[in-house]
Amino acid sequence: MSPAFKRKIGRVLWSLVLVTLVAVEFWFRNVREPTAPRPAVEVEVERLQPLTGVRFIDDDNNDGDSFVVEHEGQRLVLRLYFVDCAEKREYKLVASRLKDQAGYFGGLSIPQTLKLGQQAKAFTADLLHSLPFTVFTRWERVYDSPRIYAVIVFEDGEDLAHKLVQAGLARIHTKGVRMPDGRKANDYENHLREVEKATRAAQRGAWGMPRRALGKNDRK
Description:
With about 220 residues, the chain is α+β, with helices and mostly antiparallel strands. Helices cover about 40% and strands about 15% of the residues. Strands 1-6-7-4-3-2 form a 6-stranded mixed β-sheet, with helices on one face. It has a two-stranded antiparallel sheet with strand order 5-8. A hairpin with an 8-residue loop joins strand 2 (about 55) and strand 3. The model is unreliable at about 25-45 and about 215-220 (pLDDT under 50).
């Protein structure tokens, strides 16, 4: 066997040894010690985060389902999940929504619907001024606005959406979310519909407002 052939055989053997070592290291890292699973970032984003020490701020633009709060020196504009309160002012951009809101409550007039919106605004402000509450949010924005969807839970375990529906001051409308206690959005919406059914029977809030034949001077 010539020296050149021996050198060639040696290089081949060393190559096989190196390939074997790499294969063993790969097996050791990926079979004996599998890579730890990545955090489920998607799940974490979906979870509502509690914000404590939040303070309600009076603002002319507040209404029953959307309002300003302060948290750690920063002002936030919150928008409730699940419910929609009537408009408190009439202007061109909300004309169609006002009609929808009036129809939802069984055919209110526009003045009655606006009055309902003012009542909802006062109701929410009174609760958030007088009762301790916790804000739950996942920082989801309402379309492209600065408003952030949230759930507001009081010490009695009830949330603001529940209390508004129970008082007959909000319709069940807009998107939902898995609640802080784990209830799925569909399950909680069904719960609100049961609350609304009892509220209608008791004729509270909008459900107790008189319906009458509208005259020609009434706005529809």
